[in-house]
């Protein structure tokens, strides 16, 4: 389920920001970036979303 469906603001809120700071920014380079991503998102990184977004053309 997408963040927007969960909290209505697309995940842009203080709680999500604090969690991002704690799980991704605070450890810095002391943890594997994929592990930090998993801790924050609860899932493995998947480039399919990035590829789809980059290849679908300009937004309308």
Description of the molecule:
The protein is built from 4 helices and no strands. By secondary structure, the protein is mostly helical. It starts with a helix and ends in a 5-residue tail after the last helix. The model has no long low-confidence stretch (mean pLDDT 81).
Number of strands: 0
Secondary structure tally, helices: 4
The gross shape turns out to be extended
Distance between the termini: 25 Å
Q: Calculate the mean pLDDT score and round it.
A: 81
- Show unreliable segments: none
Largest sheet: none
Helical percent range?
55-70%
**What's the alpha carbon Rg, rounded to whole Å?**
14 Å
Order of helices and strands: HHHH
Structural class: mainly alpha
Question: What fraction of residues sit in β-strands?
Answer: under 5%
Short description:
With 60 residues, the protein is mainly alpha-helical.
What labels describe this entry?
60 residues, mainly alpha, 4 helices, 57% helix
List strands and helices in order, with pairings.
Blueprint: H1 3-7, H2 14-25, H3 33-41, H4 48-55
């Amino acid at each position: 389920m997408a963040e927007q469906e969960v909290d209505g603001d697309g995940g842009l809120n203080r709680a999500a920001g604090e969690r991002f700071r704690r799980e991704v920014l605070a450890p810095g380079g002391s943890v594997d970036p994929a592990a930090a991503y998993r801790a924050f998102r609860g899932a493995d990184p998947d480039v399919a979303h990035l590829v789809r977004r980059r290849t679908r053309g300009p937004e309308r």
